[in-house]
Amino acid sequence: MSTPATPAHPRPGRPRSAAADAAILDATRDALVELGWSKLTMGDVAQRAGVAKTTLYRRWAHKNELVVDAVAVLFDELQLPDRGSLLEDVQGVVLQFAALLERPETKTALMAVVAESTRDAALRERIRSAIVDRQKRLVLLGRERAQARGELPYEESPVQAARNADLIFDVIAGAVVHRALVSAEPVDETWARNFTALLVGGLGGVTPA
Amino acid sequence: MSTPATPAHPRPGRPRSAAADAAILDATRDALVELGWSKLTMGDVAQRAGVAKTTLYRRWAHKNELVVDAVAVLFDELQLPDRGSLLEDVQGVVLQFAALLERPETKTALMAVVAESTRDAALRERIRSAIVDRQKRLVLLGRERAQARGELPYEESPVQAARNADLIFDVIAGAVVHRALVSAEPVDETWARNFTALLVGGLGGVTPA
Amino acid sequence: MSTPATPAHPRPGRPRSAAADAAILDATRDALVELGWSKLTMGDVAQRAGVAKTTLYRRWAHKNELVVDAVAVLFDELQLPDRGSLLEDVQGVVLQFAALLERPETKTALMAVVAESTRDAALRERIRSAIVDRQKRLVLLGRERAQARGELPYEESPVQAARNADLIFDVIAGAVVHRALVSAEPVDETWARNFTALLVGGLGGVTPA
Amino acid sequence: MSTPATPAHPRPGRPRSAAADAAILDATRDALVELGWSKLTMGDVAQRAGVAKTTLYRRWAHKNELVVDAVAVLFDELQLPDRGSLLEDVQGVVLQFAALLERPETKTALMAVVAESTRDAALRERIRSAIVDRQKRLVLLGRERAQARGELPYEESPVQAARNADLIFDVIAGAVVHRALVSAEPVDETWARNFTALLVGGLGGVTPA
DNA sequence: TTATAAGCGAGACGGTACGTCAGGTCTTTAA
DNA sequence: TTAAAGACCTGACGTACCGTCTCGCTTATAA
């Protein structure tokens, strides 16, 4: 997947088909929707993509890496619309994230690759760089806005700021994932409001609807 | 797995071996430690347990159900020691939960079965009844104590109380799981302290170490 | 199957059910008709007979012995009606034997147990005593009649007589079995006439229809 | 098993290994010798041949077809040496055939596949084309020679000639098989002489040693 | 009347082989 | 060198029967 933008000396032989790459990733998402993670097979993906198995393996050595790449792009669609207040901004991103987790591709794939990653450092790194770290931007942006609005104080040190962002990311992402996939309950407006209130106000100040 | 307490008329034929049940669950945990979820095979578990494959399949039709049952009992070890304050109680259970997730059996298995459950309602129900619902006791007990201590107000209605407990459970469990397995960062004393502070005080009152 | 007619001192305990014996043999024949030799299973026979597997195994240790016993009785139905001449007598028994081999029970079972017997001396002996030797009576009777009619000379010695009977038995039985099962062609009146002519007249005098 | 002589456009993909074919058939014969028909397993054959089970199943769907093909070639070794007279020629082929049936591969396999063929038309056809029909050449050649020598008359019609050959084939093959496998008695010089005398001279002219 | 002993139906049990399927690799021909 | 096609090896799958066992129960004879 490391294609140099301008190859100084183009490698000899037939060049790789860019169309194949796209077809494979599309086919992977389709297969995830239809079959789910555990019944998705490399042979089936190759067939859907109209590509030989060798072509697939030349690009992705393992099913889990293929799925991470196929799914990662979906997470980049998440946005943080400015809705005027920290509370509303968080609520908005929670609902967006929940909607993403409702899609069958992500629902079945995310936990599966995370599970695999507990025994595979390379996969863990790929998930982190392709998905997790990229989405921290939402937390950073949200905090910036809240600080600009005066809803949150500025951190005293960059280290503390980073640590803080990580913590908040784990809390928001973790809560939504747990509600949606483990508890298997809907993440609707009500839940999002209650969660946001808890997050902003803390246990002491909780006053759910 | 539903053995009536007092079978009025015991079923005919040779009864199932209780020893086999225990041996299989033990073997499953061992295999999880050594091989992880994805490399665990039914045949291997049977062999480790000194049991025929048919004996295993007679009890558990699928690998994921077997693993849920094998792992569920570990979650029952979680306890909520009374450490004097809500903050310290939460911190304590967070660290306990993190320690549990550090164990190779649970680390590799939990996310995997959750992933499978997204396409399998029966499995989802089994996870809920064997693991999730059983651990909500910790939230309920913690809240009770905090209310007795005057740290938290009493809920106005039972419905609200239940909804509230579910929310808090998702937040705590979700955050710890996300930190430990997705972000793959250690859940140590410092993190636990920061998280607890956030949970109790909310975003506004966050003052991490 | 060696139950003395009048047991001097009947063994203690509950006696074996004679009904079970009959039910098992009937069930075996039924199963042969429906399933054929290779798909017949001990468990299925037991079930058809309304009998536990243990009851079956207490009587017959192996499927092949059971089948020999179940089928042997059918061969005893063969008879040698006196049709007036050696030629016609042979012809008659050939057609009878062919009809027996057309029955699905025997067709599927006979060659199968013979095949098994090539590696199992005990089975070989059982086949010989339960089927083969019992049917030599037909040859002996036929020869007797032919000799009485003056169609055949009397043998010079008992040894030669026995050897001769064995040979003729092998030729008749072998030819019919080979035609019916190996060549898989019908043993009809025409064939029986031609075969009989060849057997009686020899290659030199063959004048088929 | 239908390999076109000159494939105009060779099929795409890796061609099947001819070495695998040979190794499998050899392994099958070895396994027949060591284990016999009923204990021969596809997995074991594959292992002996140093081939994956899938490779085996790609060529032979059933054990019985595999065995027919493995054994058929042995029957092609039968020859009809010119020993000067019809009587001696028949005697010679009888002994050869008996020797072939003494080999453990054929002894255990022949009756077994015939037994299976009673319920499987495709197998029946395979046996006929691979074994039975090919060996009728022996009868045809023997008759030709005898007719040239003036020992046998020429048939009046081709139909009659064919029918006659089939009959004689069934009688010879049937008698030898029955003697060797069903009666389980040796086919030695003496028996061969007696049988030949009976075949040529008929029951009336029988004068065994 | 009560042992004692075997038979019996039911079904669990440890095994072996089945035939299939998926993961990856290798070997063809064509581009 | 890549690509498509498909053969190949490996290893797990879940099932079917095997023949044995362990239950609770029945049915005989002998004490």
TrEMBL record, chains A, B, C, D:
Molecular function via GO: DNA-binding transcription factor activity; transcription cis-regulatory region binding
Alphabetical keyword list: DNA-binding, Transcription, Transcription regulation
Keyword Transcription regulation: yes
Keyword Mitochondrion: no
InterPro entries: Homeodomain-like_sf, HTH-type_TetR-like_transc_reg, HTH_TetR, Tet_transcr_reg_TetR-rel_C_sf, TetR_C
Domain HTH tetR-type: from-to ranges: 18-78
Feature: DNA-binding region: 41-60
Pfam family, one: TetR_N
Gene3D superfamilies named in the record: Homeodomain-like (1.10.10.60), Tetracycline Repressor, domain 2 (1.10.357.10)
Protein name: Transcriptional regulator
Organism: Streptomyces finlayi
